Amino acid sequence: MNSIGYNDYIRILPELVLTFFGILVMLIDPLLGRGSRKGLGILSLTGSFLAMAAGFYQINFHGPAWFGMVQVDSFSIFFHILIPCISAICILASLEYLDQQNIHSGEYYGLILFGTAGMVLMTSAVELVLIFIALEISSISTYILAGYRRSSAAGTESSIKYFLLGSFATAFFLYGVAMIFGATGSTSIPEIYKALNGATSGALVYIAVALMLIGLGFKVAFAPFHVWTPDVYEGAPAPVVALMSTGPKAAAFAVLLRVLFATAVPNDWIWLIWIAAALSMTLGNFGALIQNNVKRMLAYSSIAHAGYILVAFAAGREIGMAAAIFYTASYAAMNVGAFAVVSHFGGTGERYIDIEDYAGLGKRSPLLAFTLTIFLLSLIGIPLTGGFFAKYYVFNAALHSNLVWLTIIGVVNSAVAAYYYLRLIVMMYMREATVDAPPERVSPSMALALVLAAIGTIYLGVLPGYVLDSAHHGAQALKAGPFSKTVQPANNANAAPVQTLK
Amino acid sequence: MVPLSWYLVLSAILFALGISAFLIKRNIITIFMSIELMLNAVNLSFVAFANHWHKLSGQVFVFFVMVVAAAEAAVGLAIIIAVFRARETLNVDRVNLLKL
User: Labelling A274: which of A399, A480, B73, B91 has CA 20 to 30 A away?
Assistant: First the structure.
């Protein structure tokens, strides 16, 4: 057995950085007196940015690590960069939010970092039990974060609902892992591929895929496993919702991609995904139509967006996978931005979160209204924003796979969705203000968060080339994936860095 | 020797019991216990399969699952206490502030 070397550590560098900074935050926190924890926030922000840098550094270190437990390829690197980005913007938004709500505690930032470490690990793990553990690291952190406004009844309710349904879902996922272990005698994705490739699969494999789909379905909130989403998003702190509607989702979609496309499980699940995609889009968009609370509206919209991503899954093939990967990135940019605005505008105790409260925002604070408009237009899918290209690639992939009906359902749904996003925009620009309180000043950290999210959204809409290329490389890596020369558990773990596919 | 299928059936029954208890019970602590039951049903499967394949890894997974379940319990009970402080009830039907 090979010994553990330098490359092994580099291949989990983002996780190491995030965990290190998380522990640092937890250690320093009790040493500080009462008062604001801005310093710790900035420390954890540094941690996120360093983790992102570590993700970039990994580009030259493709290959498996830790005896085939972890696989660094273009696919995982894409998420290694994306997810710390998300958490950095959420931390920036939290800096203002926590002061606004008078919450002074450092472990909030620690939990964000630990959760991010879990999400990052999920995307590079190629061992189902390790994926399960990473999933739990990210979930347990977000359960706590969801209930962070302990004094608010809605906050604790959101937390308990998230916790109960989340652990219920992980039990399903784990049962699926046990079944696939039973069917193949291994939980390592390359081994599973070897065992299943070409062989006829027994009932156990089908049960396993179904159970894992249920488990991950809860995590990414596609219909019919979406019911918890609006309640949890409504009660949880807005910056946390920004994180948990994008980060764990991107990570869980990454796991779903790996499990469905890299394990050679039989292809019969496509019709299930087809139904789930159609259901999620329809239920999400029609549910959002009748909401008055902006957070609930965005929660339903996030269900619909999970549906669009599933359309790409149903399309399958490299082009579909690339579309799904690209969609997670562009959805992250616009949704984090939208929730950051909601977080700022909510004020102390999140008082202003109904659609009517946004009336006249265009006059009262034009810049804030303008940034929110960018995000909403992107969520609709208007050209020049990331949302447009994301949808375009998804439907393009679906048409390439002859999924005409699913594409039609998707396009009709996009039109329906335009109604409720536009309703908010109309409210901001065409109505007189009902709230007389002057809007609070946007703090520099929040301004930075909004600017970063807006730049991300517009960048993906104007120059999607680079990110799309990376998504394609990711999809190729997944296709060529664990079966290419790279993964031989315990054999190749110390091989020289394999150059990227470029 | 007890055949593998018996263990699997027992595990499936336990898992199904966990699901039904999760759906039927109204007390949050009991609901939480039913999740633990589901996890332990999975553990039984793991051990049975480990024996079937003659691979120790399946038994090691059980330890991981137990550790994760313990972490979950720590967080879950803390959240339950927070809910009780805010509501003075542990009945899920009364934890209904957030609704369609």
Answer: A480
B90 touches chain A (CB under 8 A): no
Domain range holding A75? Answer: 6-500
Report yes or no: A293 at the B interface, CB cutoff 8 Å: no
pLDDT in tens, chain A (502 residues): 467 888 889 999 999 999 999 999 999 998 887 777 888 999 999 999 999 999 999 988 888 888 889 999 899 999 999 999 999 999 999 998 888 888 888 889 999 999 999 999 999 999 999 999 999 999 999 999 999 887 788 889 899 999 999 999 999 999 999 999 999 888 899 888 888 887 777 888 899 999 999 999 999 999 889 999 999 999 999 999 999 999 999 999 999 999 988 887 777 888 889 999 999 999 999 999 999 999 999 999 999 999 999 999 998 888 999 999 999 999 999 999 999 999 998 888 788 888 888 888 888 888 989 999 999 999 999 988 999 999 999 999 999 998 999 999 999 999 999 999 999 999 889 888 776 666 678 889 999 999 999 999 999 999 998 999 999 999 988 887 654 544 333 333 333 333 333 3
Number of domains in chain A: 1
Residue A1 lies in a domain: no
Chain A interface includes B42 (CB < 8 A): yes
Q: Is residue A11 in a domain?
A: yes
Which of A213-225 are b and which e, b meaning 16 or more Cβ less than 10 Å from the residue's Cβ? Answer: bbbbbbbbbbbeb
Mutation target vs A (from B52, B68, B77, B89; most A CBs, 10 A cutoff): B68
CA gap A363, A438 in Å, rounded: 11
Torsion sign across C-alpha atoms A72, A74, A75, A79: positive
Q: Are A323 and A393 spatial neighbours (Cβ–Cβ below 8 Å)?
A: yes
pTM of the model: 0.92
Contact criterion met (CB < 8 Å) for B46 and A161: no
Does A267 map to a domain? yes
Cβ within 8 Å of residue A51, ≥6 positions away: A13, A14, A15, A17, A18, A80, A84, A116, A120
Which of A215, A230, A227 is closest to A167 using CA atoms? Answer: A215
